[in-house]
Amino acid sequence: MTGAAAALARTPGRLRSLRTSDPVLTIAVVILGLLVAASLAGRLIPGLNDGTTTVGGRFEAPSLAHPLGTDSLGRSLVARLLEGIGTTFLLSALAVLCTAVIATALGIVAAYAGGWVRELVMRIGDVLYAFPAILLALLVAAAIGPGSTAALASIVLVTVPLMTRMVCAAATDVARRDFVTSARISGVAAPVIMVRHLLTCVSGTVVVQGTYALSVAILVEGGLSFLGYGVQLPAASLGLLVSEGNVYLLTAPWILIAAGTTMVLAILAVTLVGDALRDRLEPREAVDLT
Question: Structurally, what CATH architecture does the domain formed by 3-7+19-281 represent?
């Protein structure tokens, strides 16, 4: 069995090992599951996220009729929050998917080619990674213009450098192993080696870094929407709700509390799941990041 095949065979066992009695991980998974279910409910159940079906008075405090109160237009905050969770999660997931594809391709090609190609990819990543994430995101959003597209592009540009670096480091370690050298000597085509051996062996790193990128994506979306460069009204996102809650903090503090708590729980849950995946999927040995 080749190293790539062995790595692939070990993955199901590692994933099954996540079913442990770790209470923190269990809580994180439950919270993440509830948030995902809420985001799906807000989009799939007719009328659930339609503010016109549950209109009350402006800035009503939490009550039996409106468990989280109402906003500045009298819309149920539960409905707005469900829509916001769905928007934030969908936008973040799409951005992370784009990031994973770009970073994995760049990292594997750079690792396989080595030499100046690897150095060029790593140094460009260093330059981008040196910029503060929110500053880089704001520059992209300002160039494209406010909106979901700007938020998506900003998240991708912020998260690609680190994931590329980690994938390249892991793939470089694999590229130096005997089974890859044997494949090269045997005349196996480079694309086949990169997909069959390198991609298979670094899949755990991609999953782990993708999970971390999701938490960063939620944070960046929140920051951009809070500053007015991300998702725009009349749509809702967690960042927009936090921004609205900040404006009406003294009048309706429940808006900021609900949206802010949801965002913090989402980021914390995703990060904890990422930590658990890292412990079980990534190799224990250190890899060269230079």
Answer: Orthogonal Bundle (1.10)
